[in-house]
Design a protein that fits this description.
Largest sheet: 6 strands, antiparallel
Strand content: 5-15%
Bound molecules: zinc ion
Pfam family, one: Zn_ribbon_TFIIB
Structural class: alpha+beta
Mean pLDDT: 82
InterPro entries: TF_Znf
Protein name: Transcription factor zinc-finger domain-containing protein
Strand order of the largest sheet: 1-2-3-6-5-4
Organism: Desulfatibacillum aliphaticivorans
Low-confidence stretches: none
Number of helices: 4
Helix content: 25-40%
Order of helices and strands: EEEHEEEHHH
Number of domains: 2
Shape: elongated
């Protein structure tokens, strides 16, 4: 499948159980078959995250205003329309197969616009607490290893010097 924006060969990429065709190392656009975009546009669906950072060739420039042909159908011009309810992001949709073309960065925009301010704040907090929890878990793990070492040493000493323990009882 050829990229409708820059003409390069699209690369099949998997995001969770969804397969998309991305212009990896080209213009960074992504082709979604029918219904695929709806799923990955949901910011709570972490499967879409892997598609947010495609490699883009800085040499490739794309005319964002130009009408593009559907990469799946022969000679079908896609229609531009707003995707988000807040009319923040425009996407292109094929009237025949129902697939969507998103230019570079548009998936990220859709995902962040779908969040309310409160949700955006919560998502940021969740993100940070995940990082902190991870660090805490690692510290806890390190502490446990230390504690185990100490109890092993104690056990060895108990074996070597049982009388010392007996006396203390
Ligand atoms: Zn491209
Ligand atoms: Zn089509």
């Amino acid at each position: 499948m050829k990229c409708p924006a820059c003409g390069r060969e699209l690369t099949e990429m998997t995001a969770g159980d969804v397969k998309v065709d991305a212009c990896q190392n080209g213009c960074g656009g992504i082709w979604f078959d029918r219904f695929e975009l709806k799923k990955l546009a949901d910011p709570r669906e972490s499967d879409g995250e892997s598609l947010l950072e495609l490699n883009r060739d800085p040499e490739v420039s794309v005319d964002l205003e130009a009408r593009k042909k559907c990469p799946a159908c022969a000679d079908m011009v896609m229609m531009r329309h707003f995707f988000s309810p807040k009319k923040a992001v425009e996407v292109e949709e094929c009237p025949q197969c129902g697939g969507h073309w998103l230019d570079c960065g548009e998936l990220g925009e859709i995902r962040s616009w779908k969040l309310s301010d409160k949700e955006r704040f919560e998502a940021a907090q969740e993100y940070f607490s995940e990082i902190f929890d991870n660090q805490l878990a690692q510290l806890e793990k390190a502490r446990k290893v230390e504690a185990e070492k100490i109890s092993n040493i104690t056990r060895i000493f108990r074996f070597i010097t049982p009388s010392w323990y007996l006396k203390r009882k």
